[in-house]
Amino acid sequence: MKIDRNLMGGFGNQIDLLNTLSGGISMATVNVSETPQGLTIRIKTPSLGGDAYNIEVNNNQLVVYTVLNHHGRLEFGDEENAQRAVIPSFIRTFPLPSFVDKDHIEAAFEEGELKVIVPLQPRTEEKPRRIDIRQN
Q1: 84, part of any domain
Q2: 48: containing domain
Q3: Torsion over CA of 64, 70, 76 and 81, rounded to 10 degrees?
Q4: How far is the first Cα of the chain from the last one, in angstroms, to the nearest whole number?
Q5: For the segment 12-69, what is each residue's pLDDT rounded down to a tens digit?
Q6: Which of 67, 75, 130, 134 is deepest in the core (most CB within 10 A)?
Q7: Does residue 49 sit within a domain?
């Protein structure tokens, strides 16, 4: 199998782009804590601002991700493509328990940290009940 050198050079340019956008890529720190009111998720990525984060609730999962947009020309071999490159830099998925109030999840970005508040629904005490068995 013959590998085109231009193709490999294009991958090298992509890797270089990933490494140098916004001053390079830094590791994110994630901290999840629980209080009686709900869950608090704190995410800190030093090189990213609050507008870089995206938060979605999908089925029973909370998805937090960031993307770096690069507008410009990327060279792949002899061909030059004028298109936007969307580069994922961080993605984290958190499973949501059934007792979470999904409609009231809030987020704020302060002092370089994303804080997501996931409130809990009031739990109701269910009393055990006996199930009668029919006899045929």
Answers
A1: yes
A2: 5-119
A3: 120
A4: 72
A5: 455 555 555 545 555 788 999 998 889 999 999 877 788 889 999 998 999 999 876 6
A6: 67
A7: yes
**136 occurs within a structural domain:** no
* CB distance 110 to 40 below 8 Å: no
Residue 43 counted as domain residue: yes
Query: For position 32, which CATH number holds?
Result: 2.60.40.790
Phi, psi of 74 (to 5 degrees): -115, 130
Above 80 in pLDDT, residue 134?
Answer: yes
Amino acid occupying residue 21? L
Instruction: Report the predicted TM-score, pTM, of the whole model to 2 decimal places.
Output: 0.62
- Contact indicator for 98, 120 with CB cutoff of 8 Å: no
**Pick from 64, 58, 63, 62: which is nearest to 45 by CA?**
64
